Amino acid sequence: MEIRQVHQYTEIMFAFPPKARWFAETEAAGGAIFCAYASGTPVGFVCLKKQQGNFDTVYLYVNEPYRRKGVATKLTEHAAAYAEKENAALQLRVLSNNPFVSALEKIALSLQMRRSQEMTFFRLDVNEHSKKQWEDYRPKIMGFVERAERKLGNSSIIPFAEADDALLDKVRAMIGKELPLLDPFALQGLNPHFSLIITHNGEIVAINAVRTFGRKMVYEISAAQKGKTIIAGVPVFFDKLFASDTETVTCMVHNDNAEGLNHAKGRFGFLFKESGGQTVYVK
Fold it and tell me: Do 87 and 55 form a contact (C-beta atoms < 8 A)?
């Protein structure tokens, strides 16, 4: 078994199914692909995407005849060694509905990767029924916003698309500090029109961040300073959502974010239904 870096995804594009080939194209976005070869034939690959100077394992795939033979472990070892050589962290996402979840967790532990995040997923189908539910609930949310503004001051909602460089630099500087539970991967690949910065009296107090894939949306990140709130951004986000052609939204909530879980399960449980989760390992 030989493992080597692939510099053009076209070298392996006919060796794997179409979905796997699509992920391989991320190599063009500044990442890296490592492919495993058996007697010169490509049998598996790992695709890394560069995020804020670190690497995210966006896809790990092994052709069926070569599974459970250590190929995925060897590929991940090479990915980890590459990240270390580049003085970068390697992140591995393990979905709870992945049929190989136990194998992926074993790989992470064998490489001494630390468990950095656990997320719960909630799904929203965007249709006329959920739109009506939101419209009925909206006056109640506006009441929450008004009470928050009386306590914290007037809020401004600034889409990332409208934020200047100075404001974005302030957000980056707050990641993992005033804005907890965020890591260096937090601001990559965002939809800048749906991703919002919330300020009170000119002070950044919270962000929400979403990614879009065609007509599907991932609401991946929300974070607020201690004692602050993201509630002012909620009606702005949902008004934009139900005016768009989005079909589904997956909301990802960090399991340590008790308030966020309460919002998803309680306050917005009539819209979002729990639909799985993921564990993130980092080395």
Answer: no
Which residues form the domain of 87?
2-112
Q: Round to whole Å and give the CA distance between 238 and 30.
A: 33
Percent of the chain past pLDDT 90, that is, above it, reads 55
Closest CA to 206 of 147, 157, 140: 157
What token pair was written down for 194?
A: 């749906």
Written as tens digits, the pLDDT of the chain (283 aa) is: 899 998 877 778 788 877 666 666 655 556 788 999 999 999 999 988 887 778 988 889 999 999 999 999 999 999 999 999 999 999 998 999 889 899 999 999 999 999 988 989 999 999 999 999 999 999 999 999 999 889 888 889 999 999 999 999 999 888 878 887 666 556 777 899 999 999 988 899 999 889 888 899 988 777 888 888 889 999 999 999 999 999 999 988 888 888 788 888 888 999 999 999 999 999 9
Task: Tell whether 186 and 88 lie within a shared domain.
Answer: no
In a shared domain, residues 96 and 174? no
Q: Which of 209, 207, 214 is nearest to 188 (CA)?
A: 209
Q: Are residues 177 and 226 in the same domain?
A: yes
Residues 13 and 46 in one domain: yes
The C-alpha atoms of residue 273 and residue 283 are separated, in whole angstroms, by: 32
Residue 52: CATH number of its domain? 3.40.630.30
Sign of the alpha-carbon dihedral angle for 76, 79, 84, 85: positive
Buried-state track 110-149, b at ≥16 Cβ within 10 A, e below 16: ebebeeebebbbbebebeeebeeebeebeeebeeebeebb
CA 245 and chain centroid, separation = 21
Residue whose token pair is 């049998």: 43
